[in-house]
Amino acid sequence: MLSINIPVFNVEVNELVLELVQQAKKISDLYEINIYDDGSEEVYRSANRALAKFPKVKYIEMETNQGRAAIRNRMGFDSNYKNLLFIDADSKIIKEDYLSVFLKNAKPNRVLCGGTAYQKQKPVEKEKVLRWKYGTEREAVSADLRNRKKGFIITSNNFLIPKQVFSAIHFRENIRNYGHEDTVLGFDLFKKGVEIWHIDNPVEHTGLEDADMFLRKSKTALKNLNYIADEVVKSDPDFLNQVYFLKRFYAISKWIPTFVLRLFYAVFCSSLEANLKSQNPRIKWFDLYKLSFFSTIKNREQNVHGF
């Protein structure tokens, strides 16, 4: 019936797994929970090893870090049941019927995206406000809105995919750096005619990074997105038109010369980061921060290639 896959890196997942066990037992005996540790520190491994005592829980430790794409592929290929549910380790189950909602909506040629939620209260720690505010305003949106606006975009933190589909279309392991490996998976599914359907069945994202870390990861993801667009999908029009950030960047570039965006980043980068690391970060400034940084990436690439 259901293989639940939780890739783990430096997260303790006992509470998450116990809730999933309780829900799964109420539905069927035909389930498994696979926990693959992808090179965590020993303190997290020690905390998670006890989960292997549960009859339908498999806990495996990788000798070396496999990467986000490879670890998920290995879990999917190793799974025994026809539906694969992937959940990020820094998730909290917030619905009592979480598993049953996925199974009720499952179809053979359909990928289901459950969505993401965030805590209602603003974090006390100033360093975590940016990640929380961005998630609350941009990620925690209704399934109706996601279905109307996101196209082939999926998020790998909370999605269900038939094993038959995953066996044929999975994460591309040549994408080693952080960011947008799930965007490419959605693109590949879309190209093969697989339905991507968003439902209101979120998990709460509990792993709020500090602003410094979130900004670094955002820039790494943008570099990876540029690489994917240019080298992996070879500037495929469907990809450029449906990835919202790229569509917006190229639309703005028609009206604002890219050197203006680069100059803006060079002059105002420090001021923008000061705001984004404050108690009241402005997400519109974050949008501009990313757009101007991406323009800088593109310029460096053109200089390297002699354009």
- Spans of at least 5 consecutive residues whose pLDDT stays below 50 are none
- How many alpha or pi helices? 13
How far do the termini sit from each other? 53 Å
N-to-C SSE string, H for helix and E for strand: EHEHEHEEHEEHHEHHEEHHHHH
Largest beta sheet: strand ordering: 3-2-1-4-8-6-9
Fraction of helical residues? 40-55%
Précis, in short:
Helices cover 50% and strands 15% of the residues. The protein has 307 residues and is an alpha/beta fold.
Protein architecture, described:
The chain is α/β, with parallel strands linked by helices and 307 residues long. The chain has 13 helices and ten strands. Strands 3-2-1-4-8-6-9 form a seven-stranded mixed sheet, sandwiched between helices. Strands 5-10-7 form a three-stranded mixed sheet. Helix 1 links the parallel strand 1 and strand 2.
